[in-house]
C-alpha cells in the first residue's frame, strides 16, 4: 500500500509517494499556498496539491489512485483541529481517497522528520519563524509562528523588514549610516532611497519580497557594518529567547534538548547560526542536523496514523 | 472667486469651499483614500474627491463650478513632484476646472495650517506617523512617514501591532503577562488568544484594524500594566527621537522650535502626550496647539499658489 507525504509551504508544495515501509517511489512539486483564509486560498490549495500529487505518481510511473494514508504539513494550519485543517482535509479527500489523513502545521511535520518522531525540538527560520517541540510525554509545544505582521522574529521576512527600516532611519538621521542603503538600492535598481517606499508597498511585494532582502543583512554584517550586525544579533537573540521559552515548556531537565535548525534563513543569512548559538548561552541543548526533511516527517505522520511500523519506515527513509 | 481645500486621508476626504479671502462657504465629506498605487486607488480617489467636492458646493448652495485654486493635502503623495501627485492632479482637473492646483503630502498641509504658513514643525501621529518641518529658509524637512510595515513608529498602527505582539509574547512565555491579553480578547470577543492570529491576518483587518487597538495600550498603561507602559514609552521615545532628528535638520538654533502635535493617536492613546514631552528631554521646542486644521492648510497652499494675500486669508480663517 502507498502513502503520500506533503509539505505545503508559501513558496511551493512538495509531495512524496512512498510505500508503507518508507521506500520512496516518486516525488513531485506544485505551486505555493496562500493562507487558507485568503480569498482564493482554497482554490490555490486544491490546484497546488493536485499538481504535486499528480507529479509524484507520474514520477513513480503509477496512475493517481487511492492510498492508505496521507500526511500533510501545511503552512497556515494552526493544528490538527483548526478550521484550516478541516478545510484542507476536505480538499485532499476529493483529490485522493485515503484511509487516514494526518494533517498538521508544517512545523510539526518538520519536527517529526528532524528527530524521527522522537522527543526534541526544531527552530524553524524560513520566510516565517516558529519553534516546535515534542515533549517526552508526547505533548507538543509551540512558540512563535505569529506571522510577519506581529511576530516571526528572526525570520527572513523579519530581517528584510529590519533592513528597510534601518535604511529609512539612516536617511532620516535617526539611525547610523549603513551599507544596507547601497545594498538595497542595488537590489531594487534605484538611485533614490525614498522611492523604495513605493516598491515595498506594491501589492505583489509583501512577505516574500521582504524575505528576499534577508541575505543582504548577513552580507553587510559580514562586511563589518554595525547596523547590520545589530540587526543580525537582534534577530538571533529573538530566536534564542524563543528557544529558552521553549526549553522551559519542555521536560528535558536531565539531558540536553535535541535541537535542529531548519529553514532557508539559516542558509541564506550568513552569520545567523553563529549568532544564535552565541545567544543561546548556557541553555542545555544539543544542536543536531535534522535526520529527515519535513516532507518525510509528514509521511511519518501518515504512516503512524495508519498504525503501521513507522520506526521501521523511518529507518528505510534514512537509507534512501 | 472661490478656493477649495481638500484633506484626503485613509479614513475620509474632507473638502472646504472658501473665498480667496479665507471665508468659509461650505464643507463636505467623502470616503477615504487608498494608496494611489493600489489596484483601485485612482477610482477611489476620483469618487471620494467628487463626493466631498459636491457636498461642499451643496452646503454653500452653489452649483459645482470652476474655481480659482484647489489645494490638496493627500495621504500617499510623497511630494508635489511625485508620480502620485501627477495622477491626483489629473483626476482633480477632470472634476473641477481650476487656475491653480497645489498638491502635497497631507503632512505638509497640516504643517501650513498649524503654523499659518510660518516656520515650525508638526509631529503627526494618526493611523501613521510623520514629522514635517518648514525651515526659516522655506525648505521642507520630513522625517518618518515610511508606512506601517517598516516605519510609522509611535502611530496608532504601531501601537496596535505592538499590543498584539506583546499578547503573543506573553502567551509564549517570552514576555511578561499583560492586561492587554484580556483587553484584546474583549475587543475581538474571543476566548482563545491563539484565534486572534486568524483575525489579525483577515484581508479586511490591515492598518486600520491595528490602529483601532491603540487606545487599549493607553488604557492598560493607565492601569499600571508594565508591558503597556513599556510600549507607550517606546512609541513616545521613537516620536521624540524623530523630533530630535527633525530639529537637527531645521535652522532654529537661536529660538525654540514651534511644534504642534496633530493626529488621532494624541487624543486616543491616553498618556502618549505626557510620555512624548518627557522623552523630548532638553530639546528646545515650544509646544503649541495647531492654529488651523490641516484642511485650512491645504486651502492656504491653494491661495498662496494663486498669488492672493494668504496671510490675510489665514487671519479670516482663524476668525471663523
From TrEMBL, chains A, B:
The lineage of its organism: Bacteria, Bacillati, Chloroflexota, Candidatus Thermofontia, Candidatus Thermofonsia Clade 1. It comes from Candidatus Thermofonsia Clade 1 bacterium. CDD domains: ASKHA_NBD_eukNAGK-like. Residues 4-301 form the ATPase BadF/BadG/BcrA/BcrD type domain. PANTHER family: N-ACETYL-D-GLUCOSAMINE KINASE. Gene3D superfamilies: 3.30.420.40. This is ATPase BadF/BadG/BcrA/BcrD type domain-containing protein.
Amino acid at each position: 500500500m502507498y502513502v503520500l507525504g506533503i509539505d505545503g509551504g508559501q513558496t511551493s508544495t512538495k509531495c512524496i509517494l512512498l510505500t508503507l515501509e518508507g521506500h520512496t517511489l516518486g516525488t513531485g512539486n506544485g505551486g505555493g499556498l496562500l493562507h487558507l483564509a485568503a480569498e482564493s486560498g482554497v482554490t490555490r490549495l486544491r490546484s497546488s496539491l493536485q499538481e504535486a500529487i499528480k507529479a509524484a505518481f507520474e514520477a513513480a510511473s503509477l496512475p493517481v489512485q487511492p492510498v492508505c494514508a496521507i500526511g500533510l504539513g501545511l503552512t497556515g494550519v494552526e493544528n490538527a483541529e483548526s478550521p484550516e485543517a478541516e478545510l484542507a482535509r476536505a480538499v485532499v479527500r476529493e483529490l485522493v481517497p485515503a484511509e487516514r489523513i494526518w494533517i498538521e502545521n508544517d512545523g510539526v511535520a518538520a519536527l517529526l522528520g528532524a528527530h524521527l518522531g522522537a522527543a526534541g525540538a526544531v527552530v524553524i527560520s524560513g520566510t516565517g519563524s516558529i519553534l516546535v517541540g515534542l515533549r517526552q510525554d508526547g505533548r507538543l509545544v509551540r512558540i512563535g509562528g505569529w506571522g510577519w505582521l506581529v511576530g516571526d522574529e528572526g525570520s527572513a521576512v523579519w530581517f528584510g523588514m529590519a533592513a528597510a527600516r534601518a535604511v529609512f532611519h539612516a536617511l532620516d538621521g535617526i539611525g547610523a549610516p549603513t551599507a544596507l542603503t547601497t545594498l538595497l538600492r542595488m537590489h531594487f535598481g534605484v538611485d533614490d532611497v525614498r522611492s523604495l517606499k513605493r516598491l515595498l508597498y506594491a501589492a505583489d511585494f509583501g512577505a516574500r519580497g521582504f524575505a528576499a532582502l534577508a541575505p543582504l543583512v548577513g552580507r553587510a554584517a559580514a562586511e563589518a557594518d554595525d547596523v547590520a550586525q545589530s540587526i543580525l544579533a537582534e534577530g538571533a537573540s529573538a530566536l534564542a529567547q524563543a528557544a529558552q521559552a521553549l526549553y522551559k515548556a519542555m521536560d528535558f531537565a536531565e539531558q540536553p534538548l535535541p535541537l535542529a535548525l531548519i529553514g532557508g534563513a539559516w542558509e541564506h543569512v550568513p552569520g545567523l547560526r553563529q549568532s544564535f548559538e552565541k545567544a543561546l548561552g548556557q541553555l542545555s541543548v544539543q544542536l543536531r542536523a535534522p535526520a529527515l526533511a519535513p516532507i518525510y516527517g509528514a509521511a511519518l505522520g501518515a504512516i503512524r496514523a495508519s498504525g503501521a511500523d513507522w520506526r521501521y519506515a523511518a529507518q528505510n527513509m534514512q537509507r534512501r
